[in-house]
């Protein structure tokens, strides 16, 4: 466990693992959050590419009305994949060093593991949410998974920050999320107060959802490891009142 946590801390120090951005799902006609013209309301065509000379596959987009926005999004997603590959290469180097020092008295050697995956949880209403997941195992009791989120405005290609969406409604979101965590992950929740739920742009994983926004929590952030990476959907009405 110490090795895994140490590796993850190193990754955080060398790159921006979490890029909280802002993408809005299902934008209703009377929504106070986003008002989109028919020309703006669109979906991206998402396809998969492989980072050269690596096992990492990541998404790219096409079919947008703005080629500039398309290029900006694809560049950002590619940079994220390259950062992930840097983490993979570091893990391989760490494994080589650790294995060289390993002795039979320590028991059988357990190979390190690195797995990169991604999801596209939202692609609608001129917004796109992408999550990169990195699973790392360094021989302990279990591996650890970290996430990086990208929430794009398909019209501009810009990343959207959570703070621009929930300004002034942080307390309402914290209270709602805390109650939902208690209901959905009963017996696993580790935090004792809604105030322990971070909504900071620098470390809050989140994506758009048809009902509002979905907060994604890292392992051990708010619940026991057995709960995985908890997810809570916060409806629009909670932060648009």
TrEMBL record:
Residues 1-25 form the signal peptide. The keyword DNA-binding does not apply. Keywords: Signal. The lineage of its organism: Bacteria, Bacillati, Bacillota, Bacilli, Bacillales. This is Ferritin. Residues 55-145 form the Deacetylase PdaC domain. Gene3D superfamilies: Fervidobacterium nodosum Rt17-B1 like, Heat-shock cognate protein, ATPase. Pfam families: DUF3298, PdaC. Residues 170-237 form the DUF3298 domain. The keyword Signal applies.
């Amino acid at each position: 466990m110490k090795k895994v946590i140490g590796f993850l801390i190193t990754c955080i120090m060398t790159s921006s693992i979490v890029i909280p951005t802002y993408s809005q799902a299902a934008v209703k006609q009377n929504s106070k959050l986003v008002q989109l013209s028919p020309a703006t309301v669109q979906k991206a065509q998402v396809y998969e590419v492989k980072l050269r000379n690596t096992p990492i596959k990541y998404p790219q987009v096409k079919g947008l009305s703005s080629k500039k926005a398309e290029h900006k999004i694809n560049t950002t997603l590619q940079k994220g994949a390259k950062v992930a590959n840097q983490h993979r290469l570091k893990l391989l180097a760490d494994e080589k060093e650790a294995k060289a020092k390993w002795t039979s008295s320590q028991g059988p050697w357990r190979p390190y593991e690195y797995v990169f995956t991604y999801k596209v949880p939202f692609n609608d209403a001129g917004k796109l949410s992408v999550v990169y997941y990195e699973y790392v195992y360094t021989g302990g009791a279990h591996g650890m998974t970290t996430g990086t989120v990208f929430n794009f405005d398909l019209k501009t290609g810009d990343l959207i920050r959570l703070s621009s969406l929930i300004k002034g409604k942080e307390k309402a979101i914290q209270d709602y999320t805390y109650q939902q965590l208690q209901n959905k992950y009963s017996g696993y929740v580790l935090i004792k107060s809604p105030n322990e739920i971070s909504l900071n742009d620098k470390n809050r994983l989140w994506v758009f959802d048809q009902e509002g926004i979905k907060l994604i929590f890292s392992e051990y952030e708010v619940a026991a490891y057995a709960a995985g990476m908890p997810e809570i959907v916060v409806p629009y009405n909670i932060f648009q009142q």
